[in-house]
Amino acid sequence: MASSKASIDGNNIDVTDDMDDVMDDYMSMTLPESPSNLTQFETSVQRCGRKRREAESRAYQASKAELAHQARLNRDEALNTSLPVSSKGYQMMARLGFKAGSALGKEGNQQARKEPLGVFVKEGRAGVGMDRERKRKFEDDDDRGEEIQKRQTEAEFRERQSREKEQKRAEGLCWGAMRVLEEFESDDTTTDKDKADKGENAGSSTSEATTGINVLWRELVKDRDEKERLRRMRYDLQQTLSRSATHDDPDEETHDRQAWGTEEEEIEVQDPELDDFNRLEPAERLLRMVEYLRDNWLYCFWCKFQYPDKRMEGCPGVTENEHG
């Protein structure tokens, strides 16, 4: 840049300004870096939160499981860490000739162990090696148990299916024997007049009258009465005709009176004798019915024949197996 002249007190003075140097100093000026050791400002909320977390950390008590886990981790870490050079044990071994990475004992022994034996925490009071033997026995027992269980499961399933089939068949034979018993007893004890009355009052037998029937076929009568009662109820529900509540028909049947509410329906009476009989196995109930038919009516349920005398010649026996 060109130099300029200035006049001071009438004298000429040469003033030379190096503007380039000034501009260079201005452009190269840098701000001082902020010190790194300045503490960050902490608000009261942050300080309360920090103090609360520190207090919780100091007051926390680890559980037994956590302590045991931490102890196990510390033990594994210590076992996996080499002996430090600064320890007295390492220094004593070094004076005796030990070098890091080499084995203890006589030099040149290729079979010498370079790593210490592993540590396994033994639980329980059993002898050394018992866990291995016990584990082997458990594995053998599991394999043998699975095979036995599989065979037993298949055998039990087949046996259960066969038993259920036999029980179902015996139940059907029991109902057949009950019908035969009722037929013999009805033909012997019911007169023509009784039959006519029974036909007029079909389905109107009461629980008290049912208990007087022989327990061997009482279930058949109760079942028939129950079906008749349900049929009458369905019939009464289908009736849509309305009538006065005070209407009284002397010729009206009992079921109709109960349906219209003019007569209370009888409450079923408990029958412990029949309940005890039904708790028996179907085969036992069937055997009692067959024996009753043979003793009282000289009738063989399996032969389907009524013999003329008590000898019952020609009948193989009482059970079905004897009849082939």
Provide a quick synopsis of the model.
This protein has 324 residues and is mainly α.
Please give a structural write-up.
The chain is mainly alpha-helical and 324 residues long. It has 11 helices and 4 strands; from the N terminus they run ββαααααααααααββ. The strands form 2 sheets. The chain has a two-stranded antiparallel sheet. α5 runs parallel beside α11. The chain is elongated. The N and C termini lie far apart (142 Å). 4% of the residues are buried. The N terminus is likely disordered.
Considering the chains and any ligands shown, give keywords for the structure.
mainly alpha, two-stranded antiparallel ribbon, 324 residues, 11 helices, 4 strands
What is the tally of beta strands? Answer: 4
- Uncertain regions: pLDDT < 50 for 5+ in a row? 1-16, 195-205
Q: Please give the largest β-sheet.
A: 2 strands, antiparallel
The average pLDDT score comes to 75
Q: Which strand order do you get reading across the main beta sheet?
A: 1-2
Helix content percent band: 40-55%
* SSE order, one letter for each helix or strand: EEHHHHHHHHHHHEE
Computed Rg:
54 Å
- Silhouette: elongated
Based on helices, strands and strand pairing, what is the structural class?
mainly alpha
CA distance, first residue to last residue: 142 Å
Give the percentage of residues in beta strands.
Answer: under 5%
Q: What is the number of helices? A: 11
Give the secondary structure arrangement, pairings included.
Blueprint: E1 4-8, E2 11-15, H1 19-27, H2 44-59, H3 64-79, H4 88-95, H5 130-189, H6 192-200, H7 207-210, H8 218-238, H9 254-260, H10 272-278, H11 282-297, E3 299-300, E4 305-306
Antiparallel strand pairs: 1-2, 3-4
